[in-house]
Amino acid sequence: MSQDAYCNGCGSKIQSTDKTKPGFISEDLLKEKSSDELICQRCFRIKNYSETFPYEVSNQDFLQVIDKIRNEDALIVKIVDIFDFSGSFVPAIKTLTEKKDFILVGNKVDLLPKNVKHKKILSWLKIMLRNQGFDVLDSVLVSAKYGDNFDELMRLIYKYKGNRNVYIVGSSNVGKSKIINQILKRYLGAASDIVTESLSPQTTLGLIGFNLLDGSIIYDTPGVVNKHQYMHYLSRQSYKATYPQKEVKPLVFQLNEEQTLFFGGLARLDIISGETCDIINVVTYFSNRLNIHRTKTDRANKLYKDKLYSLLSPPVSSEEELPRWVFHEFRIRDNQKYDIVFSGLGFVTLRAPFHVKAYAPFVVGVYTRLAII
Ligand code: GDP
Q1: What is the predicted pLDDT for the residue at 59?
Q2: Of 55, 118, 178, 184, which is best to mutate to test ligand 1, by the most ligand atoms within 8 angstroms of its C-beta?
Q3: Domain for residue 12, yes or no?
Q4: Residue 108 has pLDDT above 70, yes or no
Q5: What's the structural domain count of the chain?
């Protein structure tokens, strides 16, 4: 086997010694395939049988990737999941983008309601980035699922890269692999998907590079896992019911003080008071498959105890042990609109002034931000 053979699906070094490790191909198959056809057994099974494999990218691997990018004058294309902006902006990604030329790509724009103006989202993204202390060259919203806005993305890449290489970076599951596959199919002549995409985190394990038309290289990189998201604590079945797969339809609830909304059995919002008025409009943006249930706050604890896994579901089974819940209290007195975000699950929008409590498992990021919509 050539020392330099790498899997085209996940970037792992090809090996024929350990079936349980990434990069495995049997010796017989290895003899038959050319290096640009090599797909390891793990990638083959993820693609064809939707299997999942709990491999971790070791810190060592990831540090090597960071070092390579840090020491190179390259263009960074930073991907965020528009549905979970802060969740896709973990510290390791900040390190990678610091002092680098970078373009911001907001992916999964197909999940937002159709009437939302892209211009508004882009200016919102700019404010978010400024708050994090970043200067971005440009930004664009895309849908890797439908291929929307890829001409604009490619125009920006070629405009800013000069003769440098390009690195696609982002937390796991923001859609990096799907973006690369769209670029390969639309602009670089690939007949089908090459990089392995999956609902599970950490499918891409090493750097996977492809030649752009001018000879520089565009790399897919391993995702940095954000452990503050629900997906790490749910079964595949629950996660599928939790994460939106198509346009989210907002629901409007008019809530009084001491009323509660449950988002499946995964999160809860209590209205403590509307401060200046009795009724608060709460608009919810969650997967259409997540059951949202309204109740009185003084009945909420009993309901949770009795109806978790049935009325309050997902989680679908008691085998999924979600970490203990904590609450986050938000009391805001101006009159702007805010989102309260349950990282990786969804968000609610309400106009201040309000006083609410948001409950979620302690590992999950719950935060407030100026309303995106
Ligand atoms: P990576 O871990 O960042 O490489 O992410 P993947 O490309 O493997 O995608 C993770 C999950 O997000 C998969 O289930 C994809 O189908 C889904 N996904 C990626 N891009 C989009 C998009 O533009 N819209 C929607 N709705 N889902 C997407």
Answers
A1: 53
A2: 178
A3: no
A4: yes
A5: 2
